[in-house]
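Re-running Trypsin-like protease to confirm reproducibility after the cluster update. Everything else is unchanged from the original entry.
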Amino acid sequence: VFTAAHCLVYPSLLVSAVAGLHNVGGTSGSQSRSVSKQTQHSKYGGDVGPYDIGIIALSKAFDFNDKIQPVALPASGVIHSGSATLYGWGSTSTTSTASMPKLLQTVTKPIIEYSACEAHLGGAGASPLADTNICTGPLTGGISACSGDSGVP
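Result of re-run:
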């Protein structure tokens, strides 16, 4: 299982992975697995930043079905264009007070060219982006990832 490295903060014995869960209040169609090992990228330097990726090894593989499928990854070196879909349980609030959903949320956003995103976010100062980041738009704001969405596809 791929996740964000900054999410790998608890010992494996205290963590489980769940697939197929779409409603926090239910378990119908979901599968749970214990975690046997967690690994952060060797170049990860902490916090949200470059190489913020980790791998979780499961005690047993998930059984794929119509509700549980692997994420399709591009070939190495391929820069994806078009759109990207984010899934998450993060806050849906537009204020500083978090509002956590009971249902899995999803949004599809256009992928923005790295140079355009870097120019927009860098402004007069240093850009917070690394070449390992993916940038989605629009750059003027709107629905996006929020607190609680870390580690999701």
